[in-house]
Amino acid sequence: MKTQHPGIVIVNAGSSSIKLSFFELDAQGPVIYAHGHMEGIGAHRPHMALVDATGETLESHTFAAGDVADHTAAYRLLREAIERDLSGFQPFAIGHRVVHGGSHFDASVVIDAAVKREIEALGVLAPLHQPPALAAIEMIESIAPDILQIAGFDTAFHFHRDTLHQLTGLPYDHFEQGLRRYGFHGLSYEYIAQCLEADAPHLFHGRTVVAHLGGGASLCAMQAGRSIDTTMSLTPLDGLPMGTRCGSLDPGALLYLLGQGMSVDRLRHLLYYDSGLKGLSGISSDMRELLASREPRAAMAVEYFVERLAQECARMAQVMQGFDGLVFTGGIGEHAAPIRERLCARLQPLFGVDCDREANRGSPVGVISSAESRVEVRVMPTDEEGMLARHVWRLWRQRNGE
Fold this sequence. Notes:
Layout: E1 5-13, E2 17-26, E3 29-39, E4 47-52, E5 57-62, H1 71-85, E6 89-98, E7 109-110, H2 113-121, H3 130-143, E8 148-153, H4 172-176, H5 186-199, H6 201-205, E9 207-213, E10 217-223, E11 226-230, H7 251-259, H8 264-273, H9 276-281, H10 287-292, H11 296-320, E12 325-329, H12 330-335, H13 337-351, H14 357-360, E13 366-367, E14 376-379, H15 384-399
Parallel strand pairs: 1-6, 6-8, 9-12, 12-14
Antiparallel strand pairs: 1-2, 2-3, 3-4, 4-5, 7-8, 9-10, 10-11, 13-14
């Protein structure tokens, strides 16, 4: 008889991907058990993989075009793989990473009909993220209607910032109607805040800029584990340039493009899929490829990314009247040493940030600033799924009177 592993599944559904994280429980709470993903849904060669907690591959398949035409097909194939390789895993709750929680949700919640309506209504503000999340919720409802489902919102961590940092400059009645600067990557920032409290309390209580840099990128000015301000705003388009998203942009440029006859759908595709590092370089949205390229436009895209990073770091520092720590996390933040070094060099004249080149090499974890640096610089891996699993475990226990 196979050992039964009661646990939690975290679902992160994107526009063309599904990521699953499986957690079992020990005395301290959720512990990673396995990971699974399906990438390239609807694309030419979709790929599925399932790995255990040690990274050993349990399954890896590349499918022909048309075999994974939509999310329904992807969930079916993932479910079959889970039944084959993780047959002892018995989920008692499912957590969904939901990008936008709007002005209603300041914490993770149990999903019911009202919550689903709010997630659907916010689709206009996060069109790449909300529909797949809602589809995942409804798919699991159809398969296992009695299982507890939890929504964790990336906006929740920033919910209680000062009103001043949520305003947009539009008339105040728009703010009252929900058009405000929300901020995202909240699960990542919450996880980093908890790690700082445990491992670097001087930075937790001090003034720290956290840089979550990846395909999506943002900064958070953080103090005492709270978000003071952040670079993303009403939608995940604002702030830093990203893999395929533009970042901050003069709204007059949008009016100009619409006036030239560009449709709203084409404009949306331009802003979300064809801009950022990909659009500037004309090569790739992948920072690794751009750093390795000798093409002038690749170098220009990287330089623009670093320049905007430095500008936004200075803005975060101004909000806190200086900063004591700089934390890099996310795919680029954790693995792109040249980006870390270049940003620190940009910040050195104004803020005294000094990177230790030896400590910064490769993909380090921990302190990478020199002894002379006035700002402590760290690299810290993030764990959005693990953070959400803790929320799911807490809500499940509350629901069951524990």
